[in-house]
């Protein structure tokens, strides 16, 4: 199983890229969102990968973070969701957006993805809603791991091929970490995982750059009894 690739981008198409890893070229399928954020051809990239193996097919799918990869694997477990539909959902919403949509039961957000109808979107929400809190709680850890690993790999390769190392996405890692910490705090206060995850997701959606304290305060207001 190939879990990660790092090398130079040789070329790209609308749905995949070819990565040259020490002379061996790997075709890696990616979402539109990931494709848009990748560096130019000839530059270094590091992607986590998931391999799909069937009797007549073998494909690699690439993700910039472990959180994105984890959501891909969960989406693929839903009946009617194949690799193409999973990448379409991740491309439309991003990993954190998928977490918010599933936690809040937002079927309309899911069906924005190309090729995903209302019934399939509803199935995604129903099948994954109980699993979403655990993935969201891991968000900070997975994002930090991805960022650290990618930085190390890029630094190693750039020393060899003499290209400029891209700056790490600190804001994204900080946001994911704040959400994970807020979710953990609400759990310690006795809130059920599902309602806590939904409140944190809504709070983060309204204020993407909010720190842990603000997310907790906002989530508590959302969880307060109405009336």
UniProtKB/TrEMBL annotation:
Protein name as it appears in the record: Holliday junction branch migration complex subunit RuvA
Sequence similarity: Belongs to the RuvA family.
Region feature Domain III, mapped onto this chain: 176-227
General function of this protein: The RuvA-RuvB-RuvC complex processes Holliday junction (HJ) DNA during genetic recombination and DNA repair, while the RuvA-RuvB complex plays an important role in the rescue of blocked DNA replication forks via replication fork reversal (RFR). RuvA specifically binds to HJ cruciform DNA, conferring on it an open structure. The RuvB hexamer acts as an ATP-dependent pump, pulling dsDNA into and through the RuvAB complex. HJ branch migration allows RuvC to scan DNA until it finds its consensus sequence, where it cleaves and resolves the cruciform DNA.
A GO term, aspect molecular function: four-way junction helicase activity
UniProt superkingdom: Bacteria
Cell location: Cytoplasm
Domain notes: Has three domains with a flexible linker between the domains II and III and assumes an 'L' shape. Domain III is highly mobile and contacts RuvB.
Gene Ontology biological-process annotations: DNA recombination; DNA repair
Subunit structure: Homotetramer. Forms an RuvA(8)-RuvB(12)-Holliday junction (HJ) complex. HJ DNA is sandwiched between 2 RuvA tetramers; dsDNA enters through RuvA and exits via RuvB. An RuvB hexamer assembles on each DNA strand where it exits the tetramer. Each RuvB hexamer is contacted by two RuvA subunits (via domain III) on 2 adjacent RuvB subunits; this complex drives branch migration. In the full resolvosome a probable DNA-RuvA(4)-RuvB(12)-RuvC(2) complex forms which resolves the HJ.
Regions annotated as coiled coil: none
Record keywords: ATP-binding, Cytoplasm, DNA damage, DNA recombination, DNA repair, DNA-binding, Helicase, Hydrolase, Nucleotide-binding
Domain DNA helicase Holliday junction RuvA type per the UniProt entry, residue ranges: 1-62
Residues in Holliday junction DNA helicase RuvA C-terminal domain copies: 178-224
Species assigned in the record: Shimia thalassica
One CC-aspect GO term: Holliday junction resolvase complex
Region spans: Domain I: 1-64
Database matches in NCBIfam families: ruvA
Principal location listed in the UniProt entry: cytoplasm
């Amino acid at each position: 199983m190939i879990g990660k690739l790092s090398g130079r981008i040789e070329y790209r198409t609308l749905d995949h890229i070819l990565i040259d890893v020490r002379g061996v070229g790997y075709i890696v399928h990616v979402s539109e969102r990931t494709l848009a954020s990748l560096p130019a051809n000839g530059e270094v990239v590091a992607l986590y990968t998931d391999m799909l193996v069937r009797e007549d097919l073998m494909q690699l799918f690439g993700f910039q973070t472990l959180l994105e990869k984890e959501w891909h694997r969960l989406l693929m477990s839903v009946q009617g969701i194949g690799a193409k539909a999973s990448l379409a959902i991740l491309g439309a919403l991003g990993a954190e957006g998928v977490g918010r949509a599933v936690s809040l039961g937002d079927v309309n957000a899911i069906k924005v993805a190309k090729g995903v109808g209302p019934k399939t979107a509803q199935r995604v929400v129903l099948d994954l809603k109980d699993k979403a809190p655990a993935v969201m709680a891991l968000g900070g850890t997975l994002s930090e791991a991805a960022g650290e690993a990618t930085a190390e790999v890029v630094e190693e390769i750039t020393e060899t091929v003499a290209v400029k190392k891209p700056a790490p996405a600190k804001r994204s890692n900080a946001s994911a970490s704040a959400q994970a910490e807020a979710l953990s705090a609400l759990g310690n206060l006795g809130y059920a995982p599902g309602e806590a995850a939904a409140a944190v997701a809504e709070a983060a959606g309204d204020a993407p750059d909010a720190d842990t304290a603000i997310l907790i305060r906002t989530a508590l207001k959302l969880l307060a009894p109405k009336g």
